Amino acid sequence: MSKAKLAVFASGTGSNYDAIIDAINNGTLDAEAALLVCDKPAAKVVEKAKHNGTPTFVFDPKQYAAKELFEAKIVEVLQEAEIDWIILAGYMRLIGKTLLQPFEGKIINIHPSLLPAFPGLDAIGQAFDAGVKVSGVTVHYVDAGMDTGKIIAQDVVYINDEMTRDELQSAIQQVEHKLYPATIQKLISGGESS
Ligand code: GAR
Prior knowledge:
The chain is an alpha/beta fold. The protein has helices at about 15-25, 45-50, 65-80, 95-105, 125-130, 165-190, and strands spanning about 5-10, 30-40, 55-60, 85-90, 105-110, 135-140, 150-160. Its EC number is 2.1.2.2.
């Protein structure tokens, strides 16, 4: 059987993209990074993808009159590349109907909190400011809401009183980099269902 084709969507640094590539390279994730989709032409993740030889679709939303138009273009590119799964990895946009409908049940996201706590932007800062003693990471299916889709996997990070915000971020990211590739592997091998 051919490998599952992943399209990773990212807007920034791409440390989760790196973790997925590492897992593919070390054989723990049996998939192909078939495409990187990025909405920020200057993002670091674009350089990384070019360096790794991952095909890219990079666009500037400001060049399109409406979200439906750039999402329609993305769908075209995804279908052309015969993508099986959309992996959101720090893609900081809500997915609209145009992209959701043809890929419903095949789009997952990673979020840096224990959802449903702290959805939306700066989840790490929200948790830190709230003074919670336990936070973590959630992998979930994407629906039309903001971080509201069915939860697939979670892992916890304990926050002690001495921890700075940066230390919390780095603890969360370490957990993300293990949890995301492992969860994707379970999904593509049929171990989780929507
Ligand atoms: C990750 O921590 C991810 O969980 C978060 O953005 C970061 C991207 O980092 N996503 C969200 O907050 C989505 N609501 P990366 O570019 O280094 O992978």
